[in-house]
Amino acid sequence: MAEEQNQEAVAQEQQPQFQLQKLYIKDVSFELPHAPQIFQEDGQVEIKMNLAQRVEKLADGVQEVVLTVTVTANLGEKTAYLAEVQQAGIFAISGLNEQSAHAAVNTLCPHTLFPYARRAITDLVADGGFPPLVLQPINFDQIYAQRMQEAQEQASESDDFEFQGNA
User: Fold this and answer.
1) How does pLDDT run across 102-155, given as a tens digit for each residue?
2) 49 exposed, middle or buried (CB, 10 Å; 0-12, 13-18, 19+)?
3) Signed CA dihedral, 32, 37, 40, 44: sign only
4) Is residue 102 part of a domain?
């Protein structure tokens, strides 16, 4: 009986596991550099969004992932607002090979964090006196695949490098 329980425990440890242990906002910023004059200006606001991610290993199989979402709204030459949220989570990932774990950290983790960051940005913009901002969902799988392809292309370019000169 005890041996069966040990075998079940070992089998569970070897199965892929992805668990969000903690979710929190690490940092938040909202700036209105040209308030209150910006509210009296006419024109179409141009929205730009940037994403960044940072991963820190906390223990074996446990990482803190911080997704930074920065939204800048420009009205002509002036910045109407700048909203930035660092949405963080502590994730336990086990039972995956190195490549699969790397993919999980770069796809599943930001996919889990983004809706929370999006809501925080939306609330900041509305509380700042601007019309509601709807950030569209992001395909982190596609971004990851694109980055891996670019890395492979760069690696193959460096392999093709030839040294020319006199021996």
Assistant:
1) 999 999 999 999 999 999 999 999 999 999 899 999 999 999 999 999 988 888
2) middle
3) negative
4) yes
